[in-house]
Amino acid sequence: MTFNSVPYLLFLVFAVAAFWLLPAQFRRAFVLLASLGFYASWGFLLVWLPLLVAGIVYLIGLQITSDNTHQIKWMWLGTGCLLGLLIFFKYRGFLFGNLQSLGISADRHPLSLATWVAFPMGISFYTFEAIAYLIDLRQGRVKMPGFWDLCLFFFFWPNILSGPLVRARELMPQLNFRKPFEPRFCFEGMDRLIWGLVQKNVVANLLGVWVDRGFAPSAGGIPSTLDGWFLAIAFGLQIYFDFAGYTNMAIGAARLLGVTLPENFRQPYHAATPPDFWARWHMTLSRWVRDYLFFPLNAKYAGAPLPLYFSLLAVMALVGLWHGAGWGYILWGSLHGAYLVLYRVYESWRPARSLGAASRWLSGAWRILTLVAVIVAWVPFRAPTLQKASEILSSMFWHLRAGTAYGAAFYVFTLAVIPFCVFEPLLLQKLGEIEEQAGADGPPAFRVLVRPIAYSFGLLLFLLFDEHNVQFIYSQF
Amino acid sequence: MIPDSVTIRNAAMEAATQLVGRPIKEGQRLVTSGLIDSLSVLKLIGLLEKKLRVIIPPETLQPEDFDDVNLIVETVERVAKSMP
């Protein structure tokens, strides 16, 4: 069941209704069962994997809390097991494919027996949550829970597939479900849910039709310069609305149960600098990387330049690899690493005193450079092969050529989405303001009707554009 | 010797002000608000170690342990007590 499908919406309605009708003491068991059922809808045989992850965390966690002298060894053992599972299920094909191409491995790799196993949805997300849990346990930030508490934490259906990546200490206390029902849970949840449906099914899927065509391996040769840039911009918009749409639906579903999940986006294309982009894009992954990878790596060197630059490049390449088993993802991450290094170098050379008007020009230039750099980096991320990525990049920078290969609708729609991207975060805020104003000045009936009208319009758009039933991009990570 | 809370608080205010470049308020969020990043937290730790003559091992800490002055005081006290 994808979030943007009618079966999921029906599941959600029944699950949320049953949740609030049940006595509070049965809600945990109900949410765990509903989450297991939701995950099983992707493949019944895959349910054992998050169960195994919960089992590893539970057993290693018991050792960490009981054996003070070997805490670090146990933590590393647990992390190793979790990473081993992730590598086996996500990267084995990539790994052996590359070894074969280097002539190191035989034609048929020893793990080929396991190729019948389908890709376990959400594995990158719940593995990272599990690693964070072990580190937090070792640092004394969380307590040792029961096995079923861990299962509920990992399986919680609103965020198991593609995050937001939550910390145990922010989600587990909420999974007691002791809060009494409040009408605002419905409003806040529905606002996010329906907005996410519109972002995904209307904006992202429509852009996706053109993007898929432009990036297809069969799309012949080097596109024109205009098409190259439009394809890169269109994919930048598509992936934002796709992932932000998914995140809104995840946050909305959790909110309907009275649970608050962390935000993942804060107008990323408004970023003023490359580090600012990562403070706005996939914020929960950035936070994970900062807390469990970047900060400990740099702690020894107190931010000395060379180790800092090296760690930025290495960590961002790993962030790319986390997204998918392919060189395009690694190149995307490495490009972002290079942007961050360049910005740090600039920062270390920048004069301390203010340059007045020049400062404003410089910050404006960084804002534009950041946006262009982010758009350029999306090309290898989306392209199916490095060859295709180099063709599109060369059309953008070297092989300058006039011409268009698409109908006017592609260019007009892409241009129309840009201001929508700028202003859409303000729309939900505006809805609240209209409602407040209507309550203060207008007839009470209008206040009551604002949300149902907005929801009906959103659902109508969702149904009108539901023909593609396309999966979320991040669900493959 | 473990410095007292007032000394740690004053040192934290001074160090944070020095990093941010302007005076900070008592409960002002430093990391989650984006006022300072994780690298600045490492610099903050260095400044606190100099001012308070304590050792703060950052490998066992996270940037949000330094999110505001109260948290900084708590973190430094906890770390100082756990040191042999």
Describe the structure.
- The complex is a heterodimer of chains A (477) and B (84).
- Chain A has 477 residues and is mainly α.
- Helices cover 70% and strands 0% of the residues of chain A.
- Chain A contains 17 helices and no strands.
- The model of chain A has no long low-confidence stretch (mean pLDDT 86).
- With 84 residues, chain B is mainly α.
- In chain B, 54% of the residues lie in helices and 0% in strands.
- Chain B is built from 3 helices and no strands.
- Chain B has helices at 5-20, 38-52, 69-82.
- In chain B, helix 1 packs across helix 2.
- The termini of chain B are close together.
- Chain A binds chain B through residues 139, 141, 275-276, 279, 290-291, 294-296, 298-300, 302-303, 308, and chain B through 34, 37-39, 41-43, 45-46, 57-64.
Structure, briefly:
The complex is a heterodimer of chains A (477) and B (84). With 477 residues, chain A is mostly helical. Chain A has helices spanning 6-21, 24-40, 48-66, 71-101, 123-138, 147-155, 168-171, 183-215, 225-256, 274-278, 283-299, 305-323, 327-349, 357-382, 386-397, 408-441, 444-464.
Task: Please supply descriptive tags for the structure shown above.
heterodimer, A: 477 residues, mainly alpha, 17 helices, 0% strand, globular, B: 84 residues
Number of strands of chain A: 0
Major interchain interface with per-chain residue totals: A-B, 16 and 17 residues
Output mean pLDDT of chain A.
86
| Helix residue percentage of chain B | 40-55%
| Parts with pLDDT < 50 across at least 5 consecutive residues of chain B | none
Query: What is the gyration radius of chain A calculated from CA atoms?
Result: 24 Å
Distance between the termini of chain B: 11 Å
Question: What is the subunit arrangement here?
Answer: heterodimer
Largest sheet of chain A, in brief, is: none
Number of β-strand runs of chain B: 0
| Average pLDDT figure of chain B | 85
Strand content of chain A: under 5%
Overall geometry of chain A comes to globular
- Indicate the structural class of chain A: mainly alpha
Helix amount of chain A: over 70%
The class by helix and strand makeup of chain B works out as mainly alpha
Report the order of strands and helices of chain A: HHHHHHHHHHHHHHHHH
Shape of chain B: globular
N-to-C order of helices and strands of chain B: HHH
